[in-house]
Each structure stands twice: as structure tokens, then as C-alpha cells.
Amino acid sequence: MRITLDIPEELATRLNSLEDKLPQILELGLRELAAISGTGFTGTAEVLEFLTQLPTPEEIIALRPSVALQAQINALLEKNRSVGLTPAEEQIWQQYEYLEHLVRMVKAKAYLKLKAG
């Protein structure tokens, strides 16, 4: 697909030597924009903010996805079942999977701490 853009001269100069990487630059920029707007990353931020509060082991074990995060996960699951995910959505899904892995590790350590104490 061919796209024509009007961009400032300074930006054109910077991009001139990166012409072969423009699709990657656009993809990364779109991901960054999505992260800034919260699309797809709201749940991740919620979990990280929770952990920065240094919760007790009991609070960690009780941690569950927020309603918004669960809705995002459910929407991705349903779309994957019906029509498949776009590359950007697949990236978001992989981030959710990694976040779930980290939360499981934190919960396991919290459980061990409770058991030892």
C-alpha cells in the first residue's frame, strides 16, 4: 500500500536515511500511541501500580483482574476465536500472557512467604 504524507522538513530529513525502516517505525509509533492512550495497556498499568504499593502477601494472593482488564482479555479471546487477531492485537495478547506469568510468580512467592511465616 502506498501512503503519501505531508511532514515537516526536519522530520523528512531525519527519516530520509531510514526509508527501509518506515513500516517498523510506524508500527512502533502506533504501539506507543496506543500505550499512551491506555488502549490495551490499562490492565498492565493497574497491576504494576498495585505492586508499587508494596501489598501484603494476602493482598497479592487476592489480586484479580479488574473488570476493564477482564473485558479486554475476553474481547481478545473472542476475536481470536472468531476472526483472528491483528499483529498489534497479538502483541497485546503476548503482553497479557507475560503479565499473567509475572503475577503468578509474585503470587507463588507471596504464598511461600505466608507459609514460612
UniProtKB/TrEMBL annotation:
Top-level taxon of origin: Bacteria
Protein name: Uncharacterized protein
Lineage: Bacteria, Bacillati, Cyanobacteriota, Cyanophyceae, Nostocales
